[in-house]
Amino acid sequence: MPAEAPPAPAARLLELHCQTLVDPDRSQRLVVFTAVPGSESHAGLRLLSA
Length: 50
Fold this sequence. Notes:
- By secondary structure, the chain is of the alpha+beta class.
- It has a domain at about 20-50.
- The chain has one helix and two strands.
- A two-stranded antiparallel sheet has the order 1-2.
């Protein structure tokens, strides 16, 4: 009998701000997602980064 995986944390919707930075040659992009500090989305991002 296979071992059971531990329960995964509940999935939740994250409200994120997105900013795209482009270099002068437009050959590369950096996409940054942030959440409002102290919000549930901020806490969710911290969980994902752990």
